[in-house]
Every structure is written in structure tokens, then in C-alpha cells.
Amino acid sequence: TLNKLRLWGGRGPCDGRVEVFNNGEWGVICNYKWSIANEKVICRALGCGTRTVSSTEHSSTNPPKKAWMNEINCTGEEKHLWDCLFNGWGITPCNYDTQHIIINCSETIVLSLSQECAGTVLVTNSTSKGIDRGKTWGTPEANVVCRELNCGTSRVIPPPGLFAAKGSTAITILGCEGTENHLWQCNKEITASSYLPPNTTAAVICSSTLTLSDPDTVKVVLLNGAKESRCFGAVHFNRNGINEAVCSNEWDINDGSAVCKELGCGWPLLVSPGEWTSDAHVNNVFCFGSESSVFHCMANYQKPTDCTKATVTCSTQCFVYPIGSIKPRIQDLKEKCSGNVELFHSGHWYPVCSKVLSKNLLNWICEELHCGTALPGNGTVLNTEETKEGFSIITACERDNLSISDCEIGTKLEKCAQGHVRCSGWARIMLTDLSPCEGRVYALNRKELYSVSGQGWGDKEVQVLCKYLRCGNRVHHESRENSLNRWWEHSYNCNGNETSIWQCKETETPTERKQLYIRCTDNPVVKLVNTSDRCFGTVEVTAFGQAQPVCANQWDQEHSRLLCQQLNCSGAVAHKVVKPGRRFTAHYFRCTGKESVLWQCGSTQRECSSYVSVVCSGKKLRTMSLDLINT
């Protein structure tokens, strides 16, 4: 058991009743054969200087009811009192009420914080002052500090660097029980140090922390570049008409919350570092998130070196930007100019809720991406039953008679279905033969199929195409006689690392009138399972080495018709949605009506909560189909 030593009940940690901790209990020291050499060891071991005054017969308040040591004989050079000769722990009894030891050491230890009930912990003695955070600085140690200074209890231990500190001594607190009257009574190590970096110093914010008002005229402002912005931008303190940047060190959502609340801008959607500045005046802002003003938060007001500015994006729609300040993208690796809509705003890509996709905004997105104009029926996200919860764009383009230059945007946190757009220039590269991963290559644009010329297609391009079709790797490609006289007027140059053929660079219009034919490694299998009849059951896909169900979301009768035709089971009678009460990974399919087998439809894999079963009109169906249809 760890032995400890303290002086208890005096004016400070260096005078009082001598007590030792042994076997989980505090006890007194008896005065029989007491010597000045013993006191020298005690004062030095406690970091309290040298012995000055002692009393060997004194009655103090509430001494422990245990006498641990007696007949102690020190030389004065020992490191700890229990290194001296004595007759054993608790061996020789004495009157613990009157025969204990009280001593005064020469050192006066003063504990303070760099601010009122908050700040860097400073311990001052006759020669130096300092404190080191150490690895064990935590709530018990912080509580001792707050209690000793009559500041309540520890409210929070702030991040390193919030408070500046200067000291010539590194005092590492090795651990407090939390019951000590003085921090100096905790286990500690004292070493000389010429410099204590701010990020190593111990600090605390106590429950009785006072909010200090700034005597200057100060307000918080947000700047977008040099222009003041209502609810978005880099955080500045405007002091007497001069904007002072706030550094992003330790800048977090609680700090942003205080700023948004003070400006009447709702809550923070995003906090992040901004551009570099050499003109910052505030660093290490520390808020709890409940403050009504950022000036009620703690902060380091010493001018820092160069840093990145703290920025915040608040939830309220009072900040607006012209549409020309953002850029769009359409996320879909299978199709060109068709997919989920995202907008780039203030350094981040955001999903767009389908409900805010006006006709003007959709047309602008298509035009910006050189994809023509938006086709009717856009807005609903395809191939997913999930709704997004995150930062979404809100727009002011609801009235279609507005010019796109009149649109304004902001951000809002909500859960919604992600928007989708299909432009007039959309296209998909696909196969239509009876094999899912082998055959002539076509391009589908809107509702027309076009033959893809074999000109310009090398191994790298075909490798990317096989990956794009989710068919594994390239095995072989060649040029064959075409089946259609309509030709796709594009070819592609790939480096082999692309995940979609649309990421490759378009090259010159091909002149060769022979069609590209490819063969890839994979051969996905789609079948109906859980029945002895191959024309009835749960739709299952075996691909990439595993069998998985097909999600029922957006599965329709056309999908069923295509599957039944692929399985030589005639037409489709019905399909059923099954909800097993859990989420699982499944395949999603999006068909165009031009496919010969299900795998040629656009497909993805993601989580799902319902799978699909299908009834085909095969000849064995009549005896078993009613159960599925009627349940």
C-alpha cells in the first residue's frame, strides 16, 4: 500500500499535525524520542523547506484515532519519514489526542489561478512558481484547487493553451484523493524548468467563475472576406470599430453555438478553420455551449502567432449568397448527367433536399455541367429508401419566373430525401445481349440506343468499362459488325484507375463503323430461391463471391417482367415486399427497359429493410402461387 505524509489542520500545507497514511488509513505520529532530524526529513519530503517550530505535546482538533509511528530515529538525510528507523507500524501506542506532533516548516505555499476562479494553476513559494499539467491532472486534482481557493468545485478542465502560464519550476501532480485541503498535499514531483509550454500547464475553470465584462465597446461579427455577413463567416471581435480575428485553435461546436446564439442565427451547422491570418487577437476560445454571448466564454487574449481563422455556419436562413458563388455536381457512377444533386458551398459539398429542387435550379445545374436541360419528373432520389440527415442546401428559387441570377442559397440541418436530376444529355453505357457481362456495347441516350464504335478502345478503357458495368476485369475485346446504324459519337481515353467510364477523357469522334464487343471475368447469377420451383421465390443475386437479396424499394412490375423473361419463366404475375424487421445489405436495380437481363440495369449495393419475392407464370406455378399472392 502506498504510504503518504501530510501536515494537517494548519494555516497551509507546510504547518500542522504530522499524519501518515498506511494500510488505507490516516494516523498520527507519536512524540516519544522525537528529534529535530525527524522534522528535517518531514519538511524536505513535503517540499516545505526546513523545520522552524515544533510542538510535541499539543491538542489539535479531531486527530485520527490511530497512532501509526513512534520512537522514530532519523539521521536527517532520509528521503521519506518511513525510511528512518522506527519500531514498526502501529506497534507502540500513545495518546493520539495529546501526544502527536505539530510542526511548522519554513516554506509558505501560495496557490492561485491566473484569473478569478479560473485559469492556469500557479503554485508560488519563496524561490519560484509553476505547475505542470502532468499525465494525471484530472477532476480530483482540479476539485482540490477550486475548494482551496473558495471557488466551489471544478466545472471543467479546459483544453491546453487556453490560459497563458509562466513559471520556473515544473510541479507534476501525481495524483490527489480529492479530500486534501491543499493541492500541495497531493503526491507530486518538483523539478527545475526554464520554460513551461502553455500546452503542458494545468488549468481549471471552477463552478464559481466570474464573467468579466470588457470595458471596451466590443461586439462579435462574421466576415466573408472583407464583407460583414449575418450568419456565416470568419469570427471577429469588433473592438472600438476595429475587427480582430479569432484563431481556430480548439474551436468547436460549443464555441460556434455561443456565436450563433448571440447573433440570433439559430445553432451552428458547421465550425471549421478558415484562411491564415497574422492579425488575430484572440486564441483558444472555450465555451460550454450554454452561453448567451461568446464574451461569456473563456479565451486567451494574448496576441498569438499566425493562425487560421475560426469560422462558423449558423442554421438560420439569414445569410445568402448569389447562385454564381456555388457549383453543382451530379453523383452517379453509372450514368452521365443523371444522379443525386450536391452543391459546393463555403468549402464543402452538401446534398440537396428534393423538395427544394425548383425547375430553374434543376435547369441551372444541367446547364452548368454541360448536360442540356432538366427532364420532367426530377426531384426524387433513386435507388435508395434512406433519407439523409445532414447539411442541406436551401434555395430561394421557388418562383420559376425568377432569373437564376436572382437565386440565393443558405444551409439548413434537416432530414430529407436527397434530390435527383436527369438532364437531357444523360447517357449510360450498357450491354443488351443475353449474357450480363459479355456482348456488344451500346450507349443509351434518353430512349435511344446507339452502337459504340470499337475505335480507340484499348485494354485500359475496356478494363474501366468492365468495372463500370460491375463485371469484374477485362478478358477480351474486339470490333464486330454493328447491329444498329445509329452511332455514339464519342470515344474515351482512360488511365485505368477510373471507377466510371464517365471519368475518362472524351476523345475525337470515331469514324470506324464496327461495334465494340467485350468479355469480362464475372458472370453474376440472378435467381428465385426458397422454393423447389425456379419460377417462384425470393429474388437473390450471387455476385462478387456472395449471395444477397434484392431490395424491394422501387422494384416494380417491369423489373419482375425482365427477371421472369431472363429465367425463361414467361411473364410476371405478382411481386411481394417482405419486411424481416432488420436492416441488411442488398442490391438495388434501376432499369431503362432496354436490358435483356436484370444485371444490365443500373445497380448499387447498400442497406435495405425490405426484400422482394416474385411470382412468374411458369407452368409449375399454379399449385403454389396463391399463397404468395394472398399473404
TrEMBL record:
Keywords in alphabetical order: Disulfide bond, Glycoprotein, Membrane, Repeat, Secreted, Signal, Transmembrane, Transmembrane helix
Subcellular location as annotated: Membrane; Secreted
GO cellular component: membrane
Coiled coil: none
Membrane-crossing segments per the record: none
Keyword Oxidoreductase among UniProt keywords: no
SMART domains named in the record: SR
InterPro entries: SRCR, SRCR-like_dom_sf
Pfam family, one: SRCR
Membrane-related topology note: Single-pass membrane protein
Presence of keyword Repeat: yes
Disulfide cysteine pairs (residue numbers): C30-C94, C74-C84, C176-C186, C287-C297, C397-C407, C494-C504, C591-C601
Domain of life: Eukaryota
Domain SRCR: 5-106, 109-207, 220-315, 328-424, 427-531, 526-617
PANTHER family membership: DELETED IN MALIGNANT BRAIN TUMORS 1 PROTEIN, SCAVENGER RECEPTOR DOMAIN-CONTAINING
The protein, known as: SRCR domain-containing protein
Organism of provenance: Scleropages formosus
